[in-house]
């Protein structure tokens, strides 16, 4: 049947297009804030009523819009930020698609008041459902104020998808905080229903802004790191293993000051925290990546939340490198070859703004973190469960401790310490123990003889695939040291990368010397074990990444017994 396909009327196509950019009040907050930032403002105020459902107003003191440009700003694909297709690869602004204002205007009632610096008067435009109702001259301060009322008043379906005022406010605050975090040189204020919720005065230090947003307690647990690798520059603030989150929302990634969600970078972050945090735990990481605009494509997503790198692998390694450089201060031997190379290029950057990040900041306002930094555990041992877990009562509730994982972690630290301070004692056998190995085993052994020796295993090749084991580290109490060496070789064979052999040996030694599960412990043994655990945080893991602790919160018991 001919004539079935029709071009949609303008108003419908506009509403469809708007749906891509404007999902909820928070999207409006984000787009308006980005425009204000692009306008070179030094002060931005965001005001919401009823979580933005009733009103969203963003005020800035930026460059304003020329009177003749005001109607254009409200048209689709009208932008002052790019002129030619090539400009798409040289974007220095947050916006460039020319879609935001028209999309917002098509689903709400918008009033714009704006004035450019050299003009004595400003312009006011009123727009309803995408239609410009009036444009007039008015008196107003330099800069722009965009007011968005009754969002989705003409798209009832969209309104149905909105959540409570609280949730909508929360989404908007997220965008506000993300943008504030990456623009410390701009003052930001957030007002909701007449109350100031956030106020961040401008500063030249990233760290001051981070502290204003994440709070002092959290910021104190962050380490600063810097990398410059050709065209990639990274400034990072990354959490120590003592703190972590149960979700990825403590990870803030910025590419050229744009907040992005990038799976590859998330992966790099988690990879660099492997062996440091248990699975299921996420670090707090704020990463500012700076690349030349042509090295990153920002035009891949309607709300610009994703980017594409020209050389993703390089970025991946740079991120791992810069984060590992932090962890290596505590685990100096985990360094891989790639990281070593990158690390050698890590230098303190000449940027004034970055250097000033070191200044001890003054908190103006702290955003109460939802998570707590762990104290030493205080406890009372109740007993052993299933011969495998030690049950303690602590202030927070009941704490189960996996005895094997716990002991393994303690031994790993002890061994590591001894290795680092070169205080490993080896015990020589009166008669060397002969070992005959497989081709594969002997291949691995030959390439790790030095590391094994530094760990207290002295082994000499005495023939084809034949070795003499002369000593063992005295810290291990094993009846069959030959078996121990075999196990280490086995672990080393599955090493994916070079450079981590020592750690693998330490982990294997710790694992095999640690008490097992299904092993009854005497009270004094449990006490000794839990006592040596006290410097560890409740989120600590065994060197393989399994949890050591399980906390059954006090509230949970109360809840289960319906006492509240
Ligand atoms: P984009 O930001 O992608 O260019 P928008 O629809 O968000 O598209 O804005 C359209 C144009 O309106 C911008 O290119 C800019 O010239 C102008 N504009 C919007 N908001 C502001 C503002 N707060 N200050 C100055 N100019 C603005
Ligand atoms: Mg814009």
Describe the protein's architecture and organization.
This protein is an alpha+beta fold and 564 residues long. The chain has three domains: 10-203, Histidine kinase-like ATPase, C-terminal domain (Heat Shock Protein 90, 2-Layer Sandwich), CATH 3.30.565; 207-330, Ribosomal Protein S5, domain 2; 342-564, 2-Layer Sandwich (Ribosomal Protein S8, Chain: A, domain 1), CATH 3.30.1370.100. It is built from 18 helices and 22 strands. The strands form five sheets. An eight-stranded mixed sheet has the order 5-4-3-6-2-1-7-8, covered by helices on one side. Strands 9-10-13-11-12 form a five-stranded mixed sheet. Strand 4 and strand 5 form a beta hairpin. Helix 1 (10-21) packs across helix 4, helix 13 crosses helix 17 (523-533) and helix 15 packs across helix 16. The protein is elongated and about 100 Å long. The site of adenosine-5'-diphosphate (ADP) has 22 residues, from helix 2 and helix 4.
Give a topology summary.
Blueprint lengths: L9 H12 L3 H14 L4 E7 L5 E6 L9 H4 L26 H7 L2 E7 L6 E7 L2 E8 L4 E7 L6 H5 L4 H18 L4 E6 L2 E6 L5 H9 L1 H5 L1 E8 L2 E8 L11 E5 L2 E3 L2 H10 L12 E6 L5 E2 L10 E2 L2 H16 L9 H8 L7 H5 L22 E7 L3 E6 L2 E6 H18 L5 E11 L2 H16 L3 E6 L2 E8 L7 H13 L7 H13 L9 H11 L15 E5 H7 L4
Parallel strand pairs: 1-7, 11-13
Antiparallel strand pairs: 1-2, 2-6, 3-4, 3-6, 4-5, 7-8, 9-10, 10-13, 11-12, 14-15, 16-17, 17-18, 18-22, 19-21, 20-21
Helix pairs in contact: 1-4, 2-6, 6-7, 9-10, 10-11, 13-16, 13-17, 14-15, 15-16
Bound molecules: adenosine-5'-diphosphate (ADP) and magnesium ion (MG).
């Amino acid at each position: 049947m001919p004539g079935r396909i029709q071009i949609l009327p303008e108003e419908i196509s506009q509403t469809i297009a708007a749906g891509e950019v404007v999902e909820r009040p928070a999207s409006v907050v984000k787009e308006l804030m980005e425009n204000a930032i692009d306008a070179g403002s030094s002060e931005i105020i965001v005001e919401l009523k009823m979580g933005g459902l009733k009103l969203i107003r963003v005020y800035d003191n930026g460059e304003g819009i020329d009177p003749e440009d005001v109607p254009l700003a409200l048209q689709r694909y009208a932008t002052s930020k790019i002129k030619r297709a090539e400009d798409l690869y040289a974007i220095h602004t947050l916006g460039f698609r020319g879609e935001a204002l028209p999309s917002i205007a098509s689903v709400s009632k918008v009033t714009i008041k704006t004035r450019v610096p050299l003009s004595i008067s400003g312009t006011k435009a009123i727009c309803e459902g995408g239609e410009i109702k009036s444009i007039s001259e008015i008196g107003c301060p330099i800069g722009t104020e965009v007011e968005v009322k009754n969002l989705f008043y003409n798209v009832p379906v969209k309104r149905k998808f909105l959540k409570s005022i609280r949730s909508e406010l929360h989404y908007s605050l997220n965008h506000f905080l993300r943008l504030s975090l990456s623009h410390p040189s701009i003052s930001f204020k957030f007002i909701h229903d007449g109350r100031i919720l956030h106020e961040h005065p401008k500063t030249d230090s990233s760290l001051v802004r981070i502290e204003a947003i994440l709070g002092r307690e959290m910021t104190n647990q962050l380490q600063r790191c810097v990398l410059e690798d050709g065209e990639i520059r990274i400034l990072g603030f990354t959490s120590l293993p003592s703190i972590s989150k149960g979700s990825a929302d403590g990870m803030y990634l910025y590419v050229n000051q744009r907040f992005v969600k990038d799976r590859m970078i998330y992966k790099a972050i988690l990879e660099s925290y492997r062996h440091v945090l248990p699975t299921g735990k996420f670090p707090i990481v704020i990463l500012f990546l700076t690349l030349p605009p042509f090295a990153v494509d920002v035009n891949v997503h309607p709300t610009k939340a994703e980017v594409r790198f020209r050389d993703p692998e390089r970025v991946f390694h740079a991120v791992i490198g810069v984060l590992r450089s932090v962890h290596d201060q505590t685990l100096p031997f985990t360094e891989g070859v790639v990281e070593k190379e990158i690390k050698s290029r890590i230098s303190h950057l000449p940027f004034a703004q970055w250097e000033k990040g070191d200044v001890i900041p003054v908190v103006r306002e702290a955003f109460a973190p939802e998570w707590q930094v762990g104290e030493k555990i205080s406890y009372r041992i109740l007993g052993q469960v299933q011969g495998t877990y030690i049950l303690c009562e602590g202030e927070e509730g009941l704490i189960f401790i996996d005895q094997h994982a716990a002991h393994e972690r303690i031994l790993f630290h002890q061994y590591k310490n001894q290795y680092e301070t070169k205080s490993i004692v080896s015990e020589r056998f009166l008669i060397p123990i002969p070992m005959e190995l497989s081709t594969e085993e002997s291949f691995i052994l030959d390439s790790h003889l030095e590391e094994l020796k530094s760990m207290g295993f002295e082994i000499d090749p005495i023939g084809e695939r034949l070795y003499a084991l002369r000593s063992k580290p005295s810290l291990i109490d094993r009846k069959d040291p030959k078996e121990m060496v075999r196990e280490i070789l086995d672990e080393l064979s599955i090493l994916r990368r070079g450079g981590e052999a020592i750690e693998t040996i330490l982990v294997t030694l710790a694992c095999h010397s640690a008490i097992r599960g299904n092993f009854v412990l005497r009270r004094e043994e449990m006490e000794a074990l839990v006592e040596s655990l006290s410097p560890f945080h409740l989120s600590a893991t065994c060197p393989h990444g399994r949890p050591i602790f399980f906390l059954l919160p006090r509230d949970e018991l109360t809840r289960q017994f319906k006492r509240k």
